[in-house]
Amino acid sequence: MTGKNQQNYNKNYIEYVSSFDPPTKHFKNCLHAFGVGGLICVIGQFIRTMLSLTLGLQGDELAGSTSVILIFLGCLLTGLGVYDRIGKNAGAGSIVPITGFANSVCSPAVEFKTEGYIYGMAAKMFVVAGPIIVFGVSAGVGVGILYWLLSL
After folding, report:
1. Which of 65, 90, 109, 149 is positioned for an S-S bond with 125, CB 3.0–4.6 A?
2. Domain segments of the chain: what residues?
3. pLDDT single digits (tens) 15-35
4. How many CA atoms lie within 13 A of 134 on its CB side?
5. What is the pTM assigned to this prediction?
6. Is 98 within 8 Å of 70 (Cβ atoms)?
7. CB within 8 A of 99, min separation 6: which ones?
């Protein structure tokens, strides 16, 4: 095939493949991502406000409690299969908040549950975002123990 024939062939092939692809709606996708991500943040702010008003939490206790509740809700919705449906419609809007990180740890654990608790669920749940979260928690625990030992 000569260079000119190859270019025509490539152009025809690209047109053929493009005829099967639906056009992407970038503005609509960005709007959904912004709306869902914002809604997750509004829910987080509501939880934070309620904890502050009802339990009188402030500072680090308030921030930690809010984060734990959001992580729990993200894992619960992942286990029930709801978070995946939210992600299909919201795209990046469901990934960015803290619930998205909880989803990225819980999803592999749920998916590989059939391979057993050790080699399936426990090993595979650290595939995506698990190492980052586990390192953060482990470092926090390690620093807390070190601080406690030094204060004795």
Report:
1. 109
2. 26-150
3. 787 777 777 788 888 888 888
4. 12
5. 0.66
6. yes
7. 40, 70, 71, 73, 74, 77, 83
